[in-house]
Amino acid sequence: xxxxxxxxxxxxxxxxxxxxxxxxxxxxxxxxxxxxxxxxxxxxxxxxxxxxxxxxxxxxxxxxxxxxxxxxxxxxxxxxxxxxxxxxxxxxxxxxxxxxxxxxxxxxxxxxxxxxxxxxxxxxxxxxxxxxxxxxxxxxxxxxxxxxxxxxxxxxxxxxxxxxxxxxxxxxxxxxxxxxxxxxxxxxxxxxxxxxxxxxxxxxxxxxxxxxxxxxxxxxxxxxxxxxxxxxxxxxxxxxxxxxxxxxxxxxxxxxxxxxxxxxxxxxxxxxxxxxxxxxxxxxxxxxxxxxxxxxxxxxxxxxxxxxxxxxxxxxxxxxxxxxxxxxxxxxxxxxxxxxxxxxxxxxxxxxxxxxxxxxxxxxxxxxx
Length: 369
Description:
- Helix 1 (66-77) packs across helix 2.
- Helix content is 28%, strand content 28%.
- It is of the alpha/beta class.
- Strands 1, 2, 3, 4, 5, 19, 20 and 21 form an eight-stranded mixed beta sheet that branches.
- The protein has helices spanning 66-77, 93-108, 144-153, 168-177, 191-200, 221-229, 244-253, 303-312, 317-332, and strands at 2-3, 7-11, 14-23, 26-34, 44-47, 49-54, 56-57, 60-61, 81-88, 116-123, 156-161, 181-184, 204-205, 232-235, 256-259, 272-275, 281-285, 288-290, 348-351, 357-362, 365-368.
- The mean pLDDT is 97.
- The chain is globular.
- The protein folds into two domains: 1-48 and 338-369, Roll (Urease, subunit C, domain 1); 49-335, Metal-dependent hydrolases (TIM Barrel).
- Its cofactor is a divalent metal cation.
């Protein structure tokens, strides 16, 4: 049994001042009264961050095996992430399948000091080879027999694809029926392609604005389809991938837009050159991560920085918290994470008034502080 510090707690029912108690990994009691945090100087207890798009950290890639995946989950836990998806990239079938099989163990058993892996985000390989962004050049059209092997290896919770590719409408329908959240990403499809894909069951969009057909007033593209019709979408709020003005536009248009890091192997490392995947080199410089030709290749973002960036561009702390915790959990259909209430997992982050991490608790276990 453990108890949080006396603080402003963002519960599922709003702000409360007091403490929460956990037992057997779940919240067992809230000893707190309604409060406006502006009227005191106490710190904050927020739901742990839920990151649905994580490739790596500390020089490790989730495709490099179980030990790498554990190291990545530990690094992100240091920054307040309590639950996450291991996110893969385009690769030949045998390589991708082996990587997924190696992820089964860290997904099944959370390592000490680490965030919980909720499953896998398969970012490709079923994307448009003309819109790879930072992905390796192993894009291909989806075949359900191949996808079935991936689904059998690990719980694939999210899959990114380009809906304009032949046969993908049927794939979207089949995966949606299996409970997989299919997202549009790395796509050159039209606005009409995007609308049709949503009708076929697409649930969201991968790193909105990036690696998709842009918004033009006569050709709205995938960005236009998202802004006009999406209920959920992910966005990278590192202030490099997307301009703050475009971020605010998306927040107004998409009710439950949530934020991800798209964190790469360079996350947690100093500026320099690093091996990314498939033998490629990336450079981390001034917060950005790029391929030799200047293309953005993931980020060096952590979720605590994401939260501060959101507040910095004008969101309230409650709104920002929802976008890094509650909405991504809801998107996956996970009701007992991303929010603080009796019976929920005791996943929370303690912040000071400057929104700096003081303590991180994952399933009742203190992993920071």
